[in-house]
Design a protein that fits this description.
Layout (H helix, E strand, L loop, with lengths): L1 H12 L8 H20 L34 H5 L12 H10 L5 H8 L12 E3 L9 E3 L1 H7 L7 H13 L7 H4 L2
Antiparallel strand pairs: 1-2
Pfam family, one: DUF3425
Length: 183
C-alpha cells in the first residue's frame, strides 16, 4: 500500500499522473479507508486473515465510544451474528446489516474484488469511491455498475444514496435513480 501511494504521489509531483492508474487509485482509496476505519475502531489488522472473526462477537472487546464515530458503532446484528471483521469497516450500518442478513448466499470473493481488489487484478468497474473521511458516510459513493450487480448490499442505505448523487452532481453527472435498481 505504501509503495503504491509513493509511486502515485511521485507521478503526480512530476506532473505526469498516469490515467491508467486512476481505477487502481480509486480502489486503493477504498482499501485505505477500510484500514483507517480498522484503527478508528481499535481493531487489529487480523481482518485481513481469511479465518478472522469480528471483535464484536467477543464479549471481551470494548468499544471506546468517545473516539468512535456513530457510523462505525456496531449494530445489534453485528454483535449477534458471527462474521468476518471486513464487514465492520464500512461506515453504513444498514449496509453491514444487509451483508450479515445475506449470510452465505453471495460470493464474498466476487464482492471483495468489486470493492477493493487493486493489486494484481485492477477492476475497471470499481464499486465504491471514498471522497472524504473514511468514517463519514457522506464521503462514500457507489458506482452505477456496482449498483446494478450488488443492489441488495445498499438496499435501504439512504445515506449512500444521498452521498452518491451529491458527488455525481458535483462532477456534472446525472443522478442515479436507486428505486429503479433496488428491488
Amino acid at each position: 500500500m505504501a509503495r503504491y501511494e509513493t509511486l502515485a504521489h511521485r507521478d503526480y509531483m512530476l506532473g505526469s499522473p498516469r490515467v491508467d492508474q486512476l481505477i487502481t487509485l480509486i480502489q486503493f482509496n477504498v482499501f485505505r479507508a477500510l484500514v483507517s476505519n480498522t484503527f478508528t475502531l481499535g481493531f487489529t489488522m487480523e481482518w485481513l486473515e481469511e479465518d478472522a472473526i469480528s471483535p464484536w462477537n467477543s464479549s471481551s472487546f470494548e468499544l471506546n465510544r468517545a473516539f468512535c464515530p456513530t457510523s462505525l458503532r456496531p449494530t445489534m446484528l453485528q454483535r449477534t451474528i458471527s462474521h468476518h471483521p471486513w464487514i465492520d469497516l464500512f461506515p453504513i450500518p444498514k449496509m453491514r446489516d444487509n451483508l450479515l442478513l445475506a449470510g452465505d448466499s453471495y460470493d464474498e470473493t466476487a464482492l471483495c474484488n468489486d470493492l477493493i481488489d487493486f493489486c494484481d487484478v485492477p477492476n475497471e468497474k470499481t464499486g465504491l469511491i471514498v471522497w472524504s473521511d473514511p468514517w463519514d458516510p457522506s464521503g462514500w459513493e457507489v458506482s452505477e455498475v456496482f449498483l446494478s450487480k450488488w443492489a441488495w448490499v445498499i438496499k435501504g442505505c439512504d445515506e449512500i444514496v444521498e452521498s452518491t448523487n451529491y458527488w455525481r452532481v458535483k462532477r456534472g453527472e446525472n443522478m442515479l435513480f436507486f428505486k429503479n435498481l433496488i428491488t
